[in-house]
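Onboarding guide, step 5: your first structure request.
Type a short instruction followed by the sequence, for example:

Predict the 3D structure of this protein.
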Amino acid sequence: MRVYKSSMFLSVALTTLALAVGEVAAHGGVLSYQINGEWYQGFKAYNTPVGQVSIQREWDTYNPITDPTDSYLACNSNGASLGSGQRSATVPAGSEVTAYWNQWPHSIGPVMVYMANCNGACTTATPSSLNWFKIDEAGLLSGSVADGQWALGELIANNNSWTSTIPASLAPGEYFLRHELLAIHTPNQPQFYPECAQLIITGSGSAQPSGSYLVKFPGAYKMSDPGVGIDVYDEPNVYNYTIPGPAVWHG
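The system replies with structure tokens like these:
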């Protein structure tokens, strides 16, 4: 189901962006999506979930999660279904997905995109119980850890957006789509910004990830991971960065 057509989307997106800037200048999250050419409005944080209609799960604050073992790491706090307002976007495998954030302030850190098979209806699924696989990632693009070009900087340059492709061979079914920004500008204090949307994938694919491609949230990260507990300013001569989590599954 299409939640908003593009003619309505612009007004809604601008209103949401204005509220976001006014309420929280330093952080944020995914405000909307363009999926296979269709626009979808995200959940409006700081508003009651009652009456909201979105493909996105509830997330209540623009503040980050700072503990990699936090129980809400899968889909942010509180990650709940919107009940009668919960929708899912029906899209074919192989489609492009672009997520749009508020004016993103943090330029140091990676971008990661995950999916999880709900093994049934996503609306009644518990995100922390699912097996997640990564479909896209980018970290340090050039230069040193201390002053190089990062994926978050590229996201900002691309109108606060990030485009990924759903693996074309992915088997049909209901899935969560999880975008996660990891801001690491504060020494040894990671800032995780995850949001989840529900998809119904169509097509003739039959592939499913297995083994080491699958992780739990929480469980995928720990503070001792080199890409999580890091002081980038203490590493001016380091030119590589290990993105946390599993390898990308391409199908």
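Each response can be followed by summary notes, for example: The chain is about 10% helix and 25% strand.
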